[in-house]
Write a structure and sequence with these properties.
Layout lengths: L14 H6 L6 E3 L9 E3 L16 E12 L2 E5 L12 E4 L3 E8 L8 E2 L23 E7 L4 E3 L2 E3 L4 E6 L9 H6 L2 E7 L8 E8 L2 E2 L9 E5 L3 E9 L5 E4 L4 E2 L15 E2 L1 E3 L5 E7 L7 E7 L2 H5 L3 E7 L9 H12 L4
Parallel strand pairs: 3-6, 5-12, 13-16, 15-23
Antiparallel strand pairs: 1-2, 3-4, 6-8, 7-11, 9-10, 11-12, 13-14, 16-21, 17-20, 17-22, 18-19, 22-23
């Protein structure tokens, strides 16, 4: 299973070991920095790039919508374990995901995806009468596909860093659900994509990060040299950018350059606006070393207002690098005035 938690949490396993025998959806913790434990549906190993959705693996899972108190609501893969963000879901092009959504609340809810294929009955919106009323259970089906050749040209498949969210609570557009925390990440991979050691979901939602404000924003942790995948999602009503200190990536589908002639721009800051999403992989501390590195929105009054957090790169053996704890302490002392 994927090691996507910090060293202090449970569930530290090898993702590559998990994939060797993956034939159905398997779930592991995604990040201890979320409100609760997130999870990932591991991609199965049977679908090929470019295959139709009927030729891939069908992942069947049950998700629960539950109140978390304090006006917050989360998705979870087990009763009593909702989280914000919700479970990180993952599959390969050609796979299908069947999500049985159980609404344990007294309000309308749904689950609406970006980037994948679905029928109107799985749209997840009151517009198409595809939502869960209070206490109701409903199944949503998402499909994926690979590239389709058109001779000289080709149409893109569904591979990408996407997301899902409520589209029914509060208003027909799910404004109440988004504000409460009903959102999560969705990854569709191509066969051969590099698999990370750790994965983190970062959601800028209004002036909050994963529905938190500094200094209580998530602290994401990895060991020096590990491959780390960030899934970044925007919600709310505000313009944001995501900036990660000391790390860079290519502005394309994966964050990697496809050889020396790839002209993709190399960036460390990218717009993250409502409804948008992107992802990338970096090597933790590559060429810069371990330490406490900051991530934040680069709209200045947003970062000043508490949209900032810590990416802690520990030493390769998991120990704390010199000066890192002092930086963490400084962050908590200086960002505490935002409450």
């Amino acid at each position: 299973m994927t090691d996507t938690t910090s060293p202090q949490t449970e569930g530290n396993f090898s993702r590559r070991t998990m994939l060797m025998g993956a034939a159905t959806a398997i779930f592991v913790p995604a990040t201890a920095a979320a409100l609760g434990t997130s999870a990932i549906a591991a991609p199965a190993s049977t679908s090929a790039r470019g295959s139709a959705s009927s030729g891939g693996t069908v992942h069947r899972l049950t998700m629960y919508v539950e109140d978390m108190g304090g006006g917050q609501v989360g998705y979870g893969l087990e009763r009593g374990r909702p989280s914000i963000p919700g479970p990180l879901l993952e599959m390969y092009e050609g796979d299908t995901m069947e999500i049985t959504l159980v609404n344990t609340t007294d309000r309308d809810v749904s689950i609406h995806p970006h980037g994948v294929l679905y029928d109107v009955v799985s749209d997840g919106s009151p517009f198409n009468s595809s939502f869960n009323g209070p206490g109701e259970t409903r199944t949503y089906i998402w499909r994926t596909t690979g590239e389709k050749s058109l001779g000289r040209w080709s149409r893109p498949g569904t591979a990408g860093y996407w997301h899902y969210h409520d589209h029914a609570m509060g208003t027909p557009h799910g404004t109440g659900g988004l504000q409460a925390g009903l959102y999560g990440g969705l990854i569709v991979r191509r066969r051969g994509d590099i698999l990370p050691d750790r994965q983190f979901t970062v959601v800028f939602n209004g002036m909050l990060t994963n529905n938190r404000i500094a200094p209580d924003t998530p602290m994401f942790e990895a060991n020096h040299g590990e491959t780390v995948e960030f899934v970044c999602i925007g919600h709310g009503d505000m313009f944001h950018t995501f900036h990660l200190h000391a790390h860079r990536w290519a502005d394309n589908r994966t964050g990697y350059l496809e050889g020396p002639r790839d002209s993709s721009q190399i960036i460390d800051n990218k717009d993250l606006n409502p409804g948008s999403s992107f992802g990338f992989q970096v090597i933790a501390g590559e060429d810069v070393g371990p330490g406490a590195w900051m991530y934040h929105c680069h709209v200045q009054f947003h970062s000043d207002g508490g949209m900032a957090g810590i990416f802690l790169v520990r030493n390769a053996d998991g120990s704390m690098p010199p000066g890192a704890q002092q930086s963490i302490d400084w962050f908590h002392q200086h960002e505490g005035g935002h409450h």
